[in-house]
Amino acid sequence: MADLSSRNPDWWRQAVIYQVYPRSFADADGDGLGDLRGVTERLGHLATLGVDALWLSPFYPSELADGGYDVAGHRDVDPRLGTLDDFDTLAAEAHRLGLKVVVDIVPNHTSHRHPWFQEALRAGPGSAARDRYVFRPGRGTHGELPPTDWQSDFGGSAWRRTPDGDWYLHLFAPEQPDLNWANEEVRADFRTTLRFWSDRGVDGFRIDVAHGLAKDLTDPLRDVAGLGATGEEALKRVAPGTHPYWDRDEVHEIYRDWRKIFDAYTPPRTAVAEAWVPDARRALYARPDELGQAFNFEYLQAGWDADELREVIAGSLATARTAGASATWVLSNHDVVRHASRLMLPPGADDNAWLLSGGRTPAVDPEAGLGRARAATLLMLALPGSAYVYQGEELGLPEVADLPAELLQDPVWEQTSHARKGRDGCRVPLPWTTTGPSYGFGPGAAWLPQPASFAPYAVEAQAGTEGSTLELYRTALRLRRKLLEGETLTWTPGAPPGVLDFARTDTWRCVTNLTARPVPLPPGEVLLSSTPSAPAGTLPPDTTVWLAPRPAVRPGGCI
After folding, report:
1. Contact 112, 69 (CB under 8 A)
2. 3: pLDDT confidence band, cut at 50, 70 and 90?
3. Residue (of 145, 150, 154, 152) closest to 217 by Cα position
4. What Å distances lie between residue 67 and 24, 94, 191, 411, 412, CA to CA?
5. Do 469 and 374 form a contact (C-beta atoms < 8 A)?
6. In this model, does residue 555 exceed pLDDT 70?
7. Three-state SS annotation for 227-289
8. Residue 389: beta bridge partners?
9. Other beta carbons less than 10 A from residue 464's beta carbon
10. Theoretical Cys-Cys bridge with 271: which of 35, 119, 153, 291, CB 3.0 to 4.6 Å?
């Protein structure tokens, strides 16, 4: 069995990490916005669930131009979310309950309200203060054109002009000016930030936009015309490591420097990269002398198809082995449509078009979506490596696709002139109880409205209810902890088309039916099934089972 204790420096290799989006988790003070005291009060839910760690999305001072990822101070807490004392209380309670604490680090950019950026605006062109960011004069007769054709990931130009005529770079929202990582003062400040949170007991870090820090700022800056849109598509059209601002080779020097800080602590602090890069490049971020682990977005993006998933799983495990890391698996997070809805969209469907239709075209069957999501979860939890669980998926929450336009908060909506609806639908606050103005999220209404359909998904409705999604997660995580051994799998030969079948060890295997018809269930003792009741000897469509090859004592509470 894997050792996930506080004494084990490799606790993260096969851990289950629960992502908390603080503003949508629990509201203790009644202002409609989730806060750190709310998280602390609900930590018992995570301990009972059986996860190994919680990852806190940004809780730093922010005007919420991008849901908290526009950080005005990297070593403080937003007053609306609490204080540093509240953070210390949260970390202490988490550790008392046996939970590790991982926090978000946002190093690519700051908020435009950050003291550094405000100083840069006052200081003027050519100043040392502006060198902490990426300022350039414009093109054109009067500097009226952006310095390059670089595009923001949120839509539109990646440059914004200041009143004195200079332009600054923002690869995301205009309220998020990019930092200049060639500036030693920037590097030193983030070293201080990493030590600050490590000294407060943080066990690890999730690095936002890890592939974006290093940029080719040699004048004249290069245009990217002909490279396609933003992100991964553009990376495929240039030699690896040479894109002007994504996934440059120089970024790895930064993380080797950070690793020295992580390893100065006992146990060493962990880190995971959010790096939207091709599979082979992801291994570089996960090397042991850098961050140690990187998110596997190929798995999240894979369709509900056995051949595609098998290829992605095999490739991901090979990539992790190349890096000396463990693989990572994730089905939902704060940036994507929840998988209970996404997995039901037809192959090739545009999830943004679905969101723009309010979730009406194509129609998604919530019950069928939940069944497929449960099967996908048991498959994910059976794979070697770390699993990242997004808050609410243990309740089976679907995407809230029909949020009214006037309530949307995501800057993507406005920056794309309403062409992309954005990510608010997966950030709707959690339901804890079946009644109340915000279903137990807080004493009053929540910052984003929850639909009436959330009530049956509430923790109160599912806790202790046999066959509920919450109890499935609790049972799966409890059983997984007992079964974990090694970091490999063996594909079972002769599996029927559309079926994934692999053994983790000689004591258990995972079988998933991704077809639309029942298939024969392999012999063995069913330890756990994603479908509460199934005909004997058959594996229904969209169902995963964990099997022991010989009769075994059924763990308490197994379905």
Report:
1. no
2. low
3. 150
4. 10, 24, 24, 9, 11
5. yes
6. no
7. CCCCCHHHHCCCCCCCCCCCCCCCHHHHHHHHHHHHCCCCCCCEEEECCCCCHHHHHHHCCCC
8. 18
9. 10
10. 291
* Strands 490-491, 53-56: pairing kind: unpaired
Which of 401, 398, 426, 424 is closest to 413 using CA atoms?
A: 424
Give the Å distances, CA to CA, from 314 to 273, 324, 488. Answer: 20, 15, 10
Give the span between the Cα atoms of 131 and 280, in whole angstroms.
Answer: 33
Structure tokens at 85: 């004392």
Q: Binning pLDDT at 50, 70 and 90, where does residue 157 land?
A: very high
d(Cα 106, Cα 98) in Å, to the nearest integer? 26
Tokens of 420: 């992309």
For 342, the enclosing helix (H) or strand (E) is helix 339-342
Distance CA 472, CA 374 (A): 8
Under the banding of pLDDT at 50, 70 and 90, the label for residue 1 is: very low
pLDDT at 48 over 90: yes
Predicted confidence at residue 236, as pLDDT, reads 75
Identify the residue with better confidence: 323 or 558: 323
What are the C-alpha distances in Å from 503 to residues 307, 379, 524, 548? 17, 12, 12, 10
**Summary mean pLDDT of the chain:** 94
When pLDDT is cut at 50, 70 and 90, the band that residue 536 belongs to is: confident
pLDDT band at residue 104, thresholds of 50, 70 and 90? very high
Give CA–CA dist 180/168, Å, rounded.
11
DSSP secondary structure string for all residues of 130-174? GGGB-EE--BSTTS-B-SS--B-TTSSBSEEE-TTS-EEE-SS-T
> Do 294 and 282 meet the contact criterion of CB atoms below 8 Å apart?
yes
**Category of 465 on φ-ψ map: left (φ > 0), alpha (ψ -120 to 50) or beta:** beta
1, 7 in Cβ contact below 8 A?
no
Question: DSSP assignment of 491-524, as one string?
Answer: EPTTPPTTEEEEEEETTEEEEEE-SSS-EEPPSS
Handedness of CA 485, 554, 516, 339 (dihedral sign): negative
When pLDDT is cut at 50, 70 and 90, the band that residue 232 belongs to is low
DSSP annotation of 554 reads P
* Amino acid residing at 189: D
Whether 62 and 166 have beta carbons less than 8 Å apart is answered as no
pLDDT of 463 above 50: yes
pTM, full prediction: 0.95
Quickly count: other Cβ atoms within 10 Å of residue 295's Cβ.
24
